[in-house]
Design brief:
Main location: membrane
CATH architecture: Up-down Bundle
Subcellular location: Membrane
Number of helices: 12
Number of domains: 1
Protein name: G-protein coupled receptors family 1 profile domain-containing protein
Strand content: under 5%
Order of helices and strands: HHHHHHEEHHHHHH
Strand order of the largest sheet: 1-2
Shape: globular
Helix content: over 70%
Number of strands: 2
Keywords: Adaptive immunity, Disulfide bond, G-protein coupled receptor, Immunity, Membrane, Receptor, Transducer, Transmembrane, Transmembrane helix
CATH topology: Rhopdopsin 7-helix transmembrane proteins
Distance between the termini: 111 Å
Pfam families: 7tm_1
């Protein structure tokens, strides 16, 4: 074979090995052209809903001065991290609409990637803390009262932010996050990493983040749900025995109120578990398989040809988390009710006032005073 032919063959092999983002050496032909339409549409819708929902919730917490309330501290942090992520979505819309071409520079790519990473794993950790908080309130109310001081929740929140900041700094300061696609010359952001990067910081961060930011929170939340369900079932059995045993009406009322609290906590933890399974699980499982392939633990080009387009779909699912979190605020907050000014039903705010007015009308002393004043 001539030297010119050898050089041409070598060039073709090198081009094939680095042809596409997130592919293993020697694998080529991966494509996901649907992402250029899917992700801009999804991100645009999520941007509008997430900004509206989370900004309204944050304004509510600040207006009612309940942001430092013990049961709201984790919610406020979750709201802030969702808002920061939502503000990056217009940049991602432009990136994918330009067929994965990042025009905003390396610094902005690092900021964008950091906020995506922070939302992905920060949301998981704060949802885990919210579920744990509700479990303690239901299963160990005395311990929950002792830990009612906001400083414990503030310390835990600061710990989450410190962990996120440490991992993000390690990811961003060890090397660039932009790299040109050899086939098109487009600038990739947070993808198309070299094999050297995968053997170093990328795989390490990916596995550590998956373990601490997804699998651990999922395990804890999945454990809290059946434990709260067991407490609720035990409460129902106590109510049945109490009703047949002639328990006083005041005791039954107290049990009824406790039962409502437990049911609300159960619904909230079930919602959080649903968010995890729907929004986060597909992305992390796909990313784990892809990382193991890039580390040569798994082999086969067909695996890469599946995980690359699947990552685009799972990224769209991840972004929906910031739209669903405001529903968690409704179930987890003690006094959070959406009205028309808060994008939902105004009748909810009237219910406590109408109930109080009805009680005043039926109270004899109040009625006498009203008649005298009239």
């Amino acid at each position: 074979m001539s030297s010119g032919a050898e050089e041409s063959t070598a060039h073709l092999i090198n081009f094939t090995q680095s042809n596409y983002s997130n592919v293993s050496d020697g694998c080529a032909g991966e494509s996901a052209d649907f992402q250029y339409l899917l992700l801009p549409i999804v991100y645009s819708v999520v941007f509008v809903l997430a900004v509206a929902g989370n900004l309204t919730a944050l304004v509510h917490f600040l207006r009612t001065r309940s942001a430092t309330h013990p049961s709201h501290i984790f919610l406020v942090n979750l709201c802030v991290i969702d808002l920061l992520f939502a503000l990056t979505l217009p940049f991602n819309v432009v990136y994918h609409a330009r067929q994965n071409d990042w025009p905003f520079g390396e610094a902005m790519c690092k900021i964008n990637g950091s906020l995506f990473f922070g939302n992905l794993y920060g949301s998981s950790l704060f949802l885990m803390l919210i579920s744990l908080d509700r479990y303690l309130a239901v299963a160990h109310p005395l311990h929950a009262l002792r830990m009612r001081n906001p400083k414990y929740r503030i310390l835990l929140s600061c710990l989450v932010w410190v962990v996120l900041a440490s991992v993000i700094l390690y990811l961003t300061l060890r090397g660039p996050l932009t790299r040109p696609f050899p086939a098109t010359g487009h600038i990739a952001c947070m993808e198309n990493f070299s094999s050297k990067s995968w053997r170093g910081r990328i795989s390490a961060v990916s596995l550590l983040a998956a373990a601490l930011g997804f699998f651990l929170p999922l395990l804890i939340i999945a454990t809290c749900y059946p434990l709260i369900a067991c407490k609720l079932l035990a409460h129902v059995q106590v109510m049945e025995r109490g009703g047949s045993g002639g328990t006083t009406s005041s005791a039954l009322t107290a049990h009824h109120v406790t039962g409502r609290v437990k049911k609300k906590a159960l619904r909230m933890v079930l919602l959080v578990l649903g968010v995890f399974l729907f929004c986060f699980a597909p992305y992390h499982l796909n990313q784990l398989v892809h990382t193991l392939h890039r580390m040569a633990v798994l082999s086969g080009c067909s695996l890469i040809r599946f995980t690359y387009p699947a990552r685009r779909v799972t990224m769209a699912l991840c972004s929906l988390n910031s739209c669903l979190d405001p529903v968690v605020y409704c179930l987890a907050s003690e006094n959070f009710h959406w009205d028309r000014r808060n994008w939902c039903c105004g009748e909810l705010r009237l219910l406590p006032w109408l109930k109080q007015r009805h009680q005043n009308r039926n109270h004899p002393i109040t009625n006498t005073n009203l008649q005298q004043s009239a």
